[in-house]
Amino acid sequence: MMSSARSPFIPFISSREVDNVLKYEDLIPVIEHALADFSRGKEGGVVQPLRTVCPVEDRNGRFFTMPCYSKNMGIIACKLMTSAPWPSEDDAPRVKIITALFGAHNGSLQAIVDSETLTSMRTAASSAVATKYLAPTGSRILTILGAGLVAGAHLEALAQVIQFSEIRVWTRTFSKAVTFAEKFGCAAFETAEEAVNNADVIVTVTRSHTPVLMSDWVKDGAHVNCVGAITPVQQELDPVLIRRAVIYVDSVQSASTESGDIVKSEANIFGEIGEVALGKLPARKNETTVFKSLGLAIEDAAASKLVYDKYYKPAGGN
């Protein structure tokens, strides 16, 4: 029989468990609420410093920390991530990510979440929020540039908000695009230009340092979710496209300093997608729009809490 004393055991929630319990129909509205809280400023109760990046120069890598506090959710969280071409052991993922979740009522550690799957899903969910508001009326063609884990997450998440009749994929290695297309039942293209021709919604999920999406390829009124480039030296979009489009971001502060697509293009940011969710900013649907996503710690906190609350929260706990 279990003692009434509090157990010192802290749950570790694996990516497999996250994948089993976290569903987009639950996650998308939670992420929308988190984005709205973030854009409320002080009223939203979110404290979130800019992420810190610690270079690991001898390994050509980086160590990221992303802390935040949400008064409304009653949680403190910090995501920790290493990214480097270190040798893989036992088929471990190249990017290693965890989120530590603390209760704000007493500061105690509640759970540690293996966040590779969680990060992909919360990123795709934020793009789904933006797509819901910004995709042109009657959208039917979705194009994804990139064929990794986050690309697959976007295909699944965006299908929750729009029923596309045609889905296309391109990546630099055509065989990878074919494998992705076979897995998800979509069409693989050999060139990005062909893949985005007449597309209504475009997602870029690459690690490119040079543009993979040119302005001339994108029809007027299309919506682009720019997701993959998350550092000042990376860039996925043609600067002409950035300057031509109405730019929405998850965080004006982050995008203005961390996004190569924004900084290199000297683009004017229209506002945050959370402001659209709040009704404080218009969704300029049917104009050419870009949602530049860098990912917010509040998204990781909200997604981690959703998993914890559904399956790991002690009965009667806070």
UniProtKB/TrEMBL annotation:
Q: Which domain of life is it from?
A: Eukaryota
Gene Ontology CC annotations of this record: cytoplasm
GO-annotated molecular function: hormone binding; pyrroline-2-carboxylate reductase activity; thiomorpholine-carboxylate dehydrogenase activity
Q: Which InterPro entries match?
A: NAD(P)-bd_dom_sf (IPR036291), ODC_Mu_crystall (IPR003462), ODC_N (IPR023401)
**What top-level class of enzyme does the UniProt entry assign?**
oxidoreductase
> Which Pfam family, giving just one, matches this sequence?
OCD_Mu_crystall
Question: Which reaction is recorded as catalysed by this protein?
Answer: L-pipecolate + NADP(+) = Delta(1)-piperideine-2-carboxylate + NADPH + H(+); (S)-cystathionine ketimine + NADH + 2 H(+) = (3R,5S)-2,3,5,6,7-pentahydro-1,4-thiazepine-3,5-dicarboxylate + NAD(+); L-pipecolate + NAD(+) = Delta(1)-piperideine-2-carboxylate + NADH + H(+); L-proline + NAD(+) = 1-pyrroline-2-carboxylate + NADH + H(+)
EC numbers on record: 1.5.1.1, 1.5.1.25
Q: What's the subunit arrangement here?
A: Homodimer. Binds the thyroid hormone triiodothyronine (T3); T3 binding inhibits enzymatic activity.
Identify its protein family: Belongs to the ornithine cyclodeaminase/mu-crystallin family.
By what name is this protein known? Ketimine reductase mu-crystallin
Q: Which organism is it from?
A: Acanthaster planci
